[in-house]
Amino acid sequence: MPKYKHVNNELIEITGVELEELNAREQAWKDSALDRELQQLRKKRNKLLLECDWIELNNAPLTDLQKNEWRVYRTELRDLTNGLTTADEVIAKEFPTKPSE
């Protein structure tokens, strides 16, 4: 099925070369899906890690049990991207539950 483009308000069929370029751009976009999704996941993960950096302070008002819960949570956040090989896996990945403060 032919593809078209608008030129000066007219619909014109694209050339073979233009079609190859279009297909190459579309494939490059698809091929970079995993990287784009990982970037978004890491951005959210890094924000969550920053929000709980305070638990590592010596004077953090937490019991030893609470500190351990937070450390487990932070480890789960850091390991979140391990083993993800497709964009669909990244999208489906669930974040760990944040401990209560």
What would you note in describing this structure?
With about 100 residues, the protein is mainly alpha-helical. The protein has 2 domains: about 1-30; about 35-100, no CATH class. The protein has 4 helices and 2 strands; from the N terminus they run E-E-H-H-H-H. The chain has helices spanning about 15-30, 35-50, 65-80, 85-90; strands at about 5, 10-15. Strands 1-2 form a two-stranded antiparallel ribbon. The longest helix is centred in the middle third of the chain and has 19 residues, at about 35-50. It is rod-shaped and about 70 Å long. The mean pLDDT is about 90.
Q: What labels describe this entry?
A:
101 residues, mainly alpha, 2 domains, two-stranded antiparallel sheet
Helix and strand element order: EEHHHH
Largest sheet: 2 strands, antiparallel
Radius of gyration from the alpha-carbon trace, in angstroms: 23 Å
Q: How much helix is in the residues? A: 55-70%
- State mean pLDDT (0 to 100 scale): 90
Instruction: Tell me the number of structural domains.
Output: 2
* Proportion in β-strands: 5-15%
What is this structure, in a nutshell?
The chain is mainly α and 101 residues long.
Question: What is the fold's blueprint, element by element?
Answer:
Layout: E1 4-7, E2 10-13, H1 16-31, H2 33-51, H3 64-78, H4 87-92
Antiparallel strand pairs: 1-2
